């Protein structure tokens, strides 16, 4: 709403996986559903922000009240993000594929009877959060996510500095938790001030609470 705590603010959110084509019919991807990122985009909009969502391929609808653009690859996601700067705050929730194949075959790779398959040669994708978090058009508030299966908080702390983020939301995506694709999430907010662990709750509730927190952090930055 026009009187919400984020009225007059612009926000950018990335969500979902990326798909990195190997050939016209195959790709490298991950299990991200886009639920947490889309919920955060919707929650920021409910608080009054003008929200731009850059989504990888997902099977869920565009969030209400959010300007959504769809991309496939990490490089497309980076370009779409950069085209939507500057913004006041950005939340990078997308599970971007770390690697793509060095080249994309123009025709379907064929199996050759009796022969070993050709190994795939991989190359690193751009780090979208790091590019924006350490770039000249850095939003005033930059938040990343860290999906880990081990050493969750130590890794999140390293990422906070390396990627130029104000906050890393760390979540354990070990298979037992069912976070990837599931409805609930247990998150730890890692900032320069320390770690705050929230009880397990629905992804919508995490989104609501996080949006409130980000509105408060942005208001704090405005205080003289
Ligand atoms: O390094 P890691 O992939 O664990 O970092 C996760 C955080 O960085 C998330 O916020 C994710 O959206 C972001 N990221 C990105 N571009 C990449 C890899 C990760 O924006 N290529």
From TrEMBL:
Protein name in UniProt: Bifunctional phosphopantothenoylcysteine decarboxylase/phosphopantothenate--cysteine ligase CoaBC
Source organism of this protein record: Antarcticirhabdus aurantiaca
Residues shown, of full length: 185 to 408 of 408
Superkingdom of origin: Bacteria
Keywords, in A-Z order: Ligase, Lyase
EC numbers, comma separated: 4.1.1.36, 6.3.2.5
């Amino acid at each position: 709403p026009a009187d919400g705590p984020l009225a007059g603010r612009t926000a950018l959110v990335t969500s979902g996986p990326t798909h990195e084509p190997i050939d016209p019919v195959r790709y490298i991807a991950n299990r991200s559903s886009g639920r947490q990122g889309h919920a955060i985009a919707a929650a920021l909009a409910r608080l009054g922000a003008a929200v731009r969502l850059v989504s990888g391929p997902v099977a869920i609808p565009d969030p209400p009240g959010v300007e959504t653009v769809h991309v496939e690859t990490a490089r497309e996601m980076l370009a779409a993000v950069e085209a939507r700067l500057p913004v006041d705050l950005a939340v990078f929730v997308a599970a971007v594929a770390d690697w793509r194949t060095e080249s994309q075959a123009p025709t379907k790779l064929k199996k050759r009877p009796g022969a070993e398959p050709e190994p795939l040669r991989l190359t690193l994708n751009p780090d979208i959060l790091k590019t924006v978090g350490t770039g000249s058009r850095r939003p005033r508030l930059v938040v990343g996510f860290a999906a880990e299966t081990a050493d969750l908080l130590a890794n999140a702390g390293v990422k906070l500095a390396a990627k130029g983020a104000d906050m890393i939301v760390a979540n354990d995506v070990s298979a037992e938790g069912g976070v990837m694709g599931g409805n609930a999430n247990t998150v730890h907010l890692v900032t320069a001030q320390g770690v705050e662990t929230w009880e397990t709750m629905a992804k919508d509730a995490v989104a609501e609470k996080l949006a409130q927190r980000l509105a408060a952090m942005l208001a704090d930055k405005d205080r003289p």
